[in-house]
Amino acid sequence: MTCGMCAAKFCYACGEDIGSVGYDHFRDGSRCSLFDRSAIAAWEREMAANANLLAREERHRDAYVRGLAAAETRCPGCAQANFKLGGNNHLRCWSCARHFCYACRKFVRRGAETKAHYGQGAGKCRQHSEG
Q1: In terms of Cα–Cα distance, which of 125, 121, 76, 129 is closest to 100?
Q2: What is the pLDDT of residue 75?
Q3: Residue 118 in 3-state DSSP?
Q4: Rounded CA gap, 113 and 115, in Å?
Q5: How far apart are CA 24 and CA 46, in angstroms?
Q6: Of 28, 43, 78, 94, which has the maximum CB count within 10 A?
Q7: pTM for the whole thing?
């Protein structure tokens, strides 16, 4: 805080003059903190939400720059937004790293399970499709 009459800098919590030490007064080990814990927690939640939004925007922009069609879907496990880029229906969630099928939204492990899931015939999904 800054005094409106004399312009002295002081700590709002304890009233101590901090003109010579500035923000060092609030460093680890001090009895005073610059922000209360609930304000810090709220700020961290907001930053995490913004980071997810920015990551989604980056993936969509990258697809646009590369000339790929981008279709948004949600991971069936963690519900994070993912993009199908181009025609491949086999997606890997950027958040939980699980593989899933864009067409039916079922988890599909790599290897033999992938070969069993995709193909032609009854009950199989196409691994590549438009849109």
Answers
A1: 76
A2: 93
A3: strand
A4: 5
A5: 26
A6: 94
A7: 0.50
Query: Is 55 in contact with 47 (CB distance < 8 Å)?
Result: no
User: DSSP string spanning 63-94?
Assistant: HHHTT--EEEEE-TTT--EEEEETTB-EEE-T
Domain borders along the chain are 1-34, 36-117
Residue 108 neighbours by CB under 8 Å, 6+ apart:
90, 99, 100, 101, 114, 117, 118
Task: Going residue by residue through the chain, which has 131 residues, state the pLDDT in tens, using 9 for 90 and above.
Answer: 888 899 999 988 888 899 888 888 888 777 888 777 788 888 788 777 777 767 767 766 776 667 666 788 899 999 988 888 778 899 998 888 899 999 999 999 888 888 899 998 888 999 988 76
Pair of tokens at residue 33: 């903190």
CB 70 within 8 A of CB 64: yes
The DSSP letter of residue 20 is T
Task: Work out the number of other CB atoms within 10 angstroms of the CB of residue 15.
Answer: 10
State how far the Cα of 105 lies from the Cα of 77, in Å rounded to an integer. Answer: 10
